[in-house]
Design a protein that fits this description.
Elements: E1 29-37, E2 51-52, H1 59-66, E3 71-74, E4 89-100, E5 103-110, H2 117-130, H3 138-144, E6 159-165
Parallel strand pairs: 1-2
Antiparallel strand pairs: 1-5, 1-6, 3-4, 4-5
Helix pairs in contact: 1-2
């Protein structure tokens, strides 16, 4: 099968599934990661693979702030404007950041995601890190149901679908 696929895709496993299986609608949850290259100088090896972010980041602070996202919430404040979905309620099971050298990786797992939700969460955490949004504000941002209360949408580089759960 890999012979027929582009070089940036590889099949590592396969299995039989029921005829009514749908890759999108049979999904029970997903995990996304967002990579941030947090150094003083750009690293060309991370170009288009991670957000270059020069200001110091505290992964522990990001994890602490992201804990307010865990649980079942209406994520209207963390969705792209104009997004049409039946419900904006999602359940986040974990959200944390970890640092390895100059790379900070943010992990978030949920039963589903709204359009740009992860990138808006990351942008909000970056605004909190910069002091543009007060620490401890995520519960109020969630309750506001107002996209303008959250941070900017982080750029697409750095966003990866890490795992899908069936």
């Amino acid at each position: 099968m890999n012979f027929f696929l582009p070089e940036d895709i590889a099949v590592t496993d396969s299995m039989d599934v029921p005829e009514d299986f749908d890759a999108r609608f049979s999904c029970k949850g997903k995990e996304y990661i967002y990579k941030i290259y947090n150094g003083s100088l750009r690293d060309p090896f991370y170009r288009d693979r991670a957000l270059f972010y020069r200001m110091p980041l505290d992964a522990d602070l990001m994890t602490q702030e992201a804990q307010a996202l865990i649980g079942t919430h209406d994520f209207t404040s963390f969705r792209a404007l104009g997004s049409n979905v039946k419900t904006t309620v999602r359940t986040v099971s974990h959200a944390y950041a970890e640092r390895s050298g100059e790379v900070v990786t943010f992990h978030i797992q949920a039963d589903g995601f709204l359009y740009n939700m992860v990138r808006i969460v990351v942008g909000t955490l970056l605004y909190i890190s910069e002091g543009k949004i007060d620490r401890g504000s995520i519960p109020q941002i969630l309750a506001s149901l107002d996209r303008t209360q959250a941070g900017k949408t982080a750029p697409p580089e750095g966003l990866y679908l890490n795992q899908v759960f069936y």
